[in-house]
C-alpha cells in the first residue's frame, strides 16, 4: 500500500535561513538606520540569530554599518543601513513613441535613466522587439561597466501579458502573441539574471506605491496617460492581478457607443476619446495629414501652449476629455474605493486643465460623495514610472528572499 504524507512538512534549514535573511533585509529597508537589537526586538528573532544574519548580509554587501548612536539608554549601538551598491535592477518601459530604461540600486537610488524615441506605431513586432532588446543590452553593459551586478531586468508593455512573458495583445503597438521575454533573453545572450515582462500599468503603480507622493498608500490606482489608458491597482496593500493577470483595462470600457473607433476594434472606448492621440487630434486637427506621429512630445507641448494661451478649442477639448476621463475614474472609484487615483504619462503636463472636470465628474458619479473618497492627482514621477516599477519588482524578489549569491 502506498501512503502519502500530508499536512505541514519540516522546512529545510536553508529555506528558513533565506526567509530570515529576507525578514532582516525588509526591516532595515523600512527602518534604517537601525541596530541589531532593534531588529531582534521587532522581528522576534533572537539576538544571536540576528547577529549571524546581519553578518551574512554585510558579507553579501546588502547591508553596511554606519557608525554609532548614543541617543539611547546603555551602550552606543552600531547602526545598519542598506548598502546594495554592487547591485542594480533594470526596468524598461515600452510606449508607442518612446522607450525608457531605468536602473536602481538596492536602496532604490537611480543609477541610470535613459529615454529614447521609438517608432512603435510604425514598427513591426520583430523590429520593435529588436529595439527593446538593444536598449536592454546597452543598459546591462553600462551597469556592468560600473562594476555592479545586474539582479534582473523587467520590461513593461502597454498590453495583455501572460505570466510567461508573452505579449498576447498590445493594440496600440499592433502586437499579438509576441514572446518578448524570449527575444530579450536571446538578445542578452541568456544572462544569469531573470528577465520578465509585465503590463506597464501594473509596474507603474508599484513605482507610485514605493516612490510617489502617496508612497505607502494601501489603496492606490495609477492611470497611464499614453496612446492607451491602463490602470495599475494596489488594493489593501497588494497588487490586483486578476485571474489571468489582465486587470485594469479601463481604457477599453465604452464611454460612447457611437464614439470614435478604437485600436481594439470597438467604438467609443475611453482611450479612443481620452488617450493622448485623441487629445492631439482634437486640439491640433492640422497634424492629421502628417502621417503617423513617431514622437508625441512636440504635439503635447503645443497642446499645453495653446491651453496656457486660453485657446478656446484647446480648452473645450480638454474639458470634454476631462469629463470622459472622470467617467472612467468614477467607475474605478465606485468599484475599488481607492484613497488616490494618480494620473501619469502625458496626463501630467495636461493636469491643470484635466483635473477640474475629472474631479467634477467624480463628485457627480461617486456613491457617497460627501463621505470622503478618492483624490485625483498628477504623478510626481516622470515618464519612466513603469520602468522604475519594473526595476522595483526585482528588488521585491530580493526582499522576498531571492538574495544574490556570494
UniProtKB/TrEMBL annotation:
<dbReference type="InterPro" id="IPR036388">
    <property type="entry name" value="WH-like_DNA-bd_sf"/>
</dbReference>
<dbReference type="InterPro" id="IPR000600">
    <property type="entry name" value="ROK"/>
</dbReference>
<dbReference type="Pfam" id="PF12802">
    <property type="entry name" value="MarR_2"/>
</dbReference>
<feature type="domain" description="HTH marR-type">
    <location>
        <begin position="24"/>
        <end position="66"/>
    </location>
</feature>
<dbReference type="GO" id="GO:0003700">
    <property type="term" value="F:DNA-binding transcription factor activity"/>
</dbReference>
<comment type="similarity">
    <text>Belongs to the ROK (NagC/XylR) family.</text>
</comment>
<dbReference type="InterPro" id="IPR000835">
    <property type="entry name" value="HTH_MarR-typ"/>
</dbReference>
<dbReference type="InterPro" id="IPR036390">
    <property type="entry name" value="WH_DNA-bd_sf"/>
</dbReference>
<protein>
    <submittedName>
        <fullName>Transcriptional regulator</fullName>
    </submittedName>
</protein>
<dbReference type="InterPro" id="IPR043129">
    <property type="entry name" value="ATPase_NBD"/>
</dbReference>
<dbReference type="Pfam" id="PF00480">
    <property type="entry name" value="ROK"/>
</dbReference>
Amino acid at each position: 500500500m502506498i501512503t502519502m504524507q500530508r499536512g505541514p512538512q519540516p522546512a529545510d534549514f536553508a529555506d528558513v535561513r533565506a526567509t530570515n535573511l529576507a525578514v532582516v533585509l525588509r526591516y532595515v529597508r523600512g527602518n534604517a538606520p537601525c541596530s541589531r537589537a532593534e531588529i531582534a526586538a521587532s522581528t522576534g528573532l533572537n539576538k544571536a540569530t540576528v547577529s549571524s544574519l546581519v553578518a551574512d548580509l554585510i558579507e553579501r554587501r546588502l547591508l553596511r554599518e554606519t557608525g554609532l548612536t548614543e541617543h539611547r539608554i546603555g551602550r552606543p549601538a552600531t547602526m545598519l543601513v542598506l548598502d546594495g551598491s554592487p547591485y542594480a535592477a533594470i526596468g524598461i518601459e515600452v510606449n508607442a513613441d518612446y522607450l525608457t530604461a531605468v536602473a536602481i540600486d538596492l536602496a532604490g537610488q537611480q543609477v541610470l535613466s535613459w529615454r529614447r524615441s521609438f517608432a512603435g506605431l510604425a514598427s513591426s513586432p520583430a523590429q520593435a522587439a529588436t529595439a527593446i532588446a538593444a536598449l536592454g543590452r546597452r543598459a546591462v553593459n553600462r551597469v556592468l561597466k560600473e562594476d555592479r551586478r545586474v539582479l534582473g531586468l523587467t520590461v513593461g508593455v502597454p498590453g495583455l501579458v501572460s505570466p510567461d512573458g508573452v505579449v498576447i495583445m498590445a493594440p496600440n503597438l499592433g502586437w499579438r502573441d509576441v514572446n518578448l521575454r524570449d527575444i530579450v533573453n536571446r538578445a542578452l545572450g541568456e544572462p544569469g539574471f531573470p528577465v520578465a515582462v509585465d503590463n506597464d500599468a501594473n509596474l507603474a503603480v508599484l513605482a507610485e506605491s514605493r516612490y510617489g507622493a502617496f508612497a505607502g498608500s494601501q489603496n492606490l490606482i495609477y492611470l497611464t496617460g499614453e496612446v492607451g489608458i491602463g490602470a495599475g491597482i494596489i488594493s489593501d496593500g497588494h497588487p490586483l492581478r486578476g485571474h489571468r493577470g489582465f486587470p485594469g483595462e479601463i481604457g477599453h470600457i465604452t464611454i460612447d457607443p457611437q464614439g470614435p473607433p478604437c485600436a481594439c476594434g470597438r467604438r467609443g472606448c475611453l482611450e479612443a476619446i481620452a488617450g493622448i492621440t485623441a487629445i492631439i487630434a482634437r486640439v491640433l486637427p492640422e497634424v492629421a495629414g502628417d502621417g503617423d506621429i513617431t514622437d508625441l512630445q512636440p504635439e503635447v507641448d503645443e497642446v499645453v501652449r495653446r491651453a496656457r494661451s486660453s485657446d478656446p478649442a484647446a480648452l473645450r477639448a480638454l474639458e470634454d476629455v476631462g469629463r470622459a476621463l472622470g467617467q472612467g475614474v468614477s467607475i474605478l472609484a465606485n468599484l475599488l474605493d481607492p484613497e488616490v487615483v494618480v494620473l501619469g504619462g502625458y496626463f501630467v503636463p495636461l493636469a491643470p486643465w484635466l483635473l477640474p472636470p475629472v474631479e467634477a465628474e467624480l463628485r457627480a458619479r461617486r456613491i457617497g460623495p460627501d463621505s470622503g473618497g478618492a483624490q485625483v492627482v498628477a504623478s510626481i514621477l516622470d515618464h519612466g514610472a513603469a520602468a522604475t516599477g519594473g526595476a522595483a519588482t526585482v528588488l521585491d524578489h530580493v526582499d522576498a528572499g531571492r538574495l544574490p549569491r556570494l
